[in-house]
Write a structure and sequence with these properties.
about 200 residues, Tetracycline Repressor, domain 2, 9 helices, Arc Repressor Mutant, subunit A, elongated, mainly alpha
């Protein structure tokens, strides 16, 4: 299908994704129509189909690109002290989440709207990220500096806690990012039974 006269793939494609991400985060995937996305972008509904097959493909693409960006941004040094690695993970996750709040919200709240194949693909990416944190916890157990009762469950609980910052954080609020990260680091240390 041809693009609308005057539209440019390098502008319109990313704009569709940005507007859809914002609408899905604010109103929920199920409540947003292709017509609303087109109106937000400033194109006809038919133009959207030059860029994507359907709304499901758009959601899956948004979630997959978020997870790919998250995985690409995170790096770990397995040779470093496990507590230092955990602190770095905590601070990284909070900063990344605040900087990508809409994408984080979709990644956690809209999984239920994915088809089984799309869900499996996104879940595999999430599993890779969760494994990175679980590896830190297992190394902490091996070194004797951490004592989580169940590393897998502790991993899931920590990620949920850290991700939750996007639900209430507002720039210019009572606590700045550095202070929030410091408080969350204390909470994480307690959660893993840090020595």
């Amino acid at each position: 299908m041809a693009r609308t006269t005057g539209s440019r793939a390098t502008i319109t494609g990313p704009l569709i994704r940005d507007k859809a991400r914002c609408l899905f985060a604010r109103q929920g995937y199920a409540a947003v129509s292709m017509r609303q996305i087109a109106a937000a972008v400033g194109v006809q509904v038919g133009t959207l189909y030059a860029y994507l097959p359907d709304k499901q493909a758009l959601l899956a693409d948004l979630l997959e690109s978020h997870m790919q960006d998250l995985l690409a941004a995170w790096s770990d040094d397995p040779q470093a002290d496990p507590l230092a690695r955990l602190e770095r993970f905590v601070r990284f996750h909070i900063d990344f989440s605040i900087d990508h709040a809409d994408a984080v919200f979709l990644s956690y709240m809209e999984l239920r709207n994915l088809t089984p194949d799309n869900f499996a693909r996104i879940a595999a990416l999430r599993g890779r990220y969760e494994s990175a944190l679980e590896s830190i916890l297992r190394d902490g157990i091996a070194s004797g500096t951490m004592r989580p009762e169940d590393p897998k469950l502790t991993t899931l609980a920590l990620i949920a806690m850290l991700t939750g910052v996007t639900n209430w954080y507002r720039e210019g609020g009572r606590l700045d990012r550095a202070r929030i990260a410091q408080i969350y680091w204390g909470l994480a240390r307690g959660a893993v039974g840090a020595a």
